[in-house]
Amino acid sequence: MERPSLEFNLPDTHEDGKLYVVDSLNNLNKLNVCPAESQRSLDEEENTSGTGENIAGSNTRNQCLFFVIFILTLIVSLALVSFAIFLIFQTRNEVDQISSRLLSEKKNIEELKKLNNIILRHLNQSRIKE
């Protein structure tokens, strides 16, 4: 597919006519190249006074807004990570406490088993004697 050329051989016209044709070609090029959203922003740029101060102020404002949002995101992320680390340490402490309780209960159960065996032996010996 060949792309149609945007260059035309213009007949000799007045200066106003040439400017009108060039402006029309520029608008046609914008419609073909730019999506609708960027076309609106281009139209807004054309409607400004042309000083460029609005654009510079807008860019500075956008950069400041970006950095504020970026810093807020970092702070929220840091808070979430800190909370996650806190929860990890709390969980570790709870698991350590439960493990120590289980070990002490295991020792108690072993002692109860020994006592049970001693009692059973004693009962068996007393039955034998009777």
TrEMBL record:
Q: In its UniProt entry, what is this protein called?
A: LSME1 protein
Q: Record keywords: Iron included? A: no
- Coiled-coil region: none
Keywords from the named record? Membrane, Transmembrane, Transmembrane helix
Asked if the keyword Lipid biosynthesis belongs to this entry, the reply reads no
Q: Where are the transmembrane segments?
A: 64-89
Q: Where is the composition biased (Polar residues)?
A: 48-58
Region span, Disordered: 37-58
Lineage, top-rank taxon, reads Eukaryota
InterPro entries recorded for this chain?
Answer: DUF4577
The record lists the organism as Certhia familiaris
